[in-house]
Structures are given as C-alpha cells and as structure tokens.
Fold:
Amino acid sequence: MKTMLRGTSAALLLLLAVGCSDSGSDQADDPTAAVEVEVGEEFTWNGFTVADGWKIDSSTQMINMEEQDRPFITGEVTNEGTEPRFALFEFVFVADGTLQSTIRCTSEKIPTGTTTDLGCPGFESVPEGYDLIQVQEVTR
Structure:
C-alpha cells in the first residue's frame, strides 16, 4: 500500500510539474499555480519575488562515509504580500517529461516588503539535461 501511495504521489507531482508549463496567466486566478522559471531570471510566485541572479550550485558532503554532491539554490526573495509569512515553495526539474529532481525552499518569517537571502538545500542531484524548471507549492 505504501509503495502504491508513493507511486501515486510521484505521478501527481509529475502531472503538476508537466501539466502547468505555461502558467503565467493562471497566476492572476491562482497565485499558487506553478510557474515556469529560468535560472537567474527574476520571477514572482504567490506574492514572493525572487530577484535576478538566483543560482543553482552544489557542495560536496560526507554522507554515510561517501562523498556526495548536494545541490542548493541561493538568491534573494522579497515578501510582496500583505502580511509577514514564510517563503515555502519548491523548484521542480523535469527532463523529457520525467521528474528529475526537486529542491525545497523554506525561510524564516519575512515581514511585508522585506528582502532576505534565499537558501534552498536539495537532496537529489539536479540533472544537467533538464528542460523545464517550475516553482510550485510543496507537494509532499
């Protein structure tokens, strides 16, 4: 049963990632709709603006006595909303219609109109051959 639920969750995540490839128009109706983004380019999602210059990097960490590269995203995020809140969303990387990797972002509570550093650690390698990045609500 647990395996079936994982498969269902993965399929739902993939549908969300692939099914919303051009959701800029959906943002007016649903601010939490997935948006397609390009590395380094400013974007807005759910009242948060991530500034130009954000990037994907990696660091080598020792995990279970093995060195492993772990991706992370850095940049600056501004709370454009009407109240203090947490920046909580995920970057989804897709290649040839298949989910490749997800990097989640969380933050301290950000006051309205305030800009702070964005730090998003990843646990899955980001493939070099991805063809789509979306920002969306955390799905699992």
About this structure: Residues 1-25 have pLDDT under 50 and may be disordered. The two ends are 17 Å apart (CA to CA). Helices lie at 2-19, 26-29. Residues 92 and 102 are 5 Å apart (CA to CA).
